[in-house]
Every structure is written in C-alpha cells, then in structure tokens.
Amino acid sequence: MEPGAIDLRDWGAGVDYGAAAALQNELHAGRVAGTVGDTLLLLEHRPVYTLGRSADASHILLDTAELERLGIAQFTTSRGGDVTYHGPGQLVGYPILHLGDRGLGVLAYITAVEEVLIRTLADFGVPAGRDPRNRGVWVGNDKIAAIGIRVSRQVTMHGFALNVNTRLDDYCGIVPCGLTSAGVTSMARVLGRPVDMVGIKAAVFSHFRAIFGYS
C-alpha cells in the first residue's frame, strides 16, 4: 500500500461478530508489525449484544432463553465502554490505524471519528452533534452512533456503529451504553424513510479519508 493511503474492506451484511473480531486481531497484528497498512472495515453484523471492558452485565435485561428466542447473540469484547447492540441496518466501522503515523492521540482520534459521522449525517439531512454525557453522535437526546475503541501499541481496533435502518426494538433488551436518561434513534426514524446503505458507506469513506488526511 502506498504511504498515506487507506484500504477499504466492505464485508457486507450478516457478519458474525466473532469472525469480525478475529479479522480485526489479524489486521491489528499486521499493522503493528508493519506488514499491512491502515484499513477501514465496513459491515453489518448479525444481531448481537456486546459488552465492553467496563460493562455492567445487568445492563443486558434479557436472560439466555429470551436471547435465543429473539436470535440475539452475546459477546464480551476488548473495546472500552458498556453494553451496546449491533445488527442489520446498522453500519459498523472498524478502523485499524496507526495513530502515531497520523499524529493523533486517543481523544483526538475519537473526536475525528465523531466528525466523520456528523458530516455523513449532515449529507443526508440529519442534524447531529456531540453530547457531554457520552462520546458518540447524538440527535437531541437520542444517540444515533456509538463509539467504542481499543488502542494497543498505537494501533486502533473496534470503532463506531451508525444506526441507519436499524431495528430499534432490539435496544429494548439492554441499557444502551449504560445510559438510563437517553434514547436511541436511527437515520430512518429521523428522516421517516429507509436510507440507502451504499450511499452511507460512500459518504463515510469519503469523509474518513478527508478528515484523517489520506490520499
């Protein structure tokens, strides 16, 4: 890969969370070793509740039998943060980046990821911004995109989840991000119509390259 470039890998929909985690680990090791360049994975997961390193297990409100009935998996992950949901209609992005090469610290990196999503949402007529209570992207009191990362040896893992056409009822089984006083929303709910995922992916990648300074 040429210096200053980033590789986009679009894995499509229906991706198993464990398979994506394994690929991230492989790419992370390669990026640390310098055998692969910066990479952005874009995909949609099968329904899954994930628990971050600081998660409170009681924030998953359903028992095992109910999760099985609903077809929602459960996965403990190495990212930061509490409990969240991934599923169809939600665009998940996993940047595998060397922060030192981009001249970024962790907080600046998170802020830049938020900006990518805010600009993407603006492209589609969704006014969004930040909230001092929690990192991520918000529309009023409702969270529309969550961010949870891990950084090891200056290389990032995990990333963001943007609710595009997400089935929001699946959030009823958790306390999203541990926040009891906030809601969740999606682009489809805000706009009152389904949104083209292909267009969202293109916008995210365009803004990602611009904000992070890739060629």
Characterization of this structure:
The mean pLDDT is 91. The chain has six helices and eleven strands. By secondary structure, it is α/β, with parallel strands linked by helices. Strands 1, 2, 6, 7, 8, 9, 10 and 11 form an eight-stranded mixed beta sheet that branches. It has a three-stranded mixed beta sheet with strand order 4-3-5, with no helix packed on it. The chain has a single domain, classed as 2-Layer Sandwich (BirA Bifunctional Protein, domain 2). α4 packs across α6.
Q: Helix coverage percent of residues?
A: 25-40%
If you compute it from the alpha carbons, what radius of gyration comes out, rounded to the nearest whole angstrom? 16 Å
CATH superfamily: Bira Bifunctional Protein, Domain 2
Individual helix count: 6
Which CATH class is shown? Alpha Beta
Low-confidence stretches: none
Helices and strands, in order, run as: EHEEHEEEHHEEEEEHH
State mean pLDDT (0 to 100 scale): 91
Number of domains: 1
Query: Which structural class matches the secondary elements?
Result: alpha/beta
| CATH fold call | BirA Bifunctional Protein, domain 2
Strand content: 25-35%
What is the number of E strands?
A: 11
Main sheet, how many strands, which sense, barrel? 8 strands, mixed
The CATH architecture comes to: 2-Layer Sandwich
Question: What layout of secondary structure does this protein have?
Answer:
Elements: E1 7-15, H1 17-33, E2 39-45, E3 48-51, H2 64-70, E4 73-76, E5 83-86, E6 90-96, H3 99-102, H4 106-123, E7 129-131, E8 134-139, E9 142-152, E10 155-163, E11 183-184, H5 187-191, H6 197-212
Parallel strand pairs: 1-2, 3-4, 9-11
Antiparallel strand pairs: 2-6, 3-5, 6-10, 7-8, 8-9, 9-10
Helix pairs in contact: 4-6
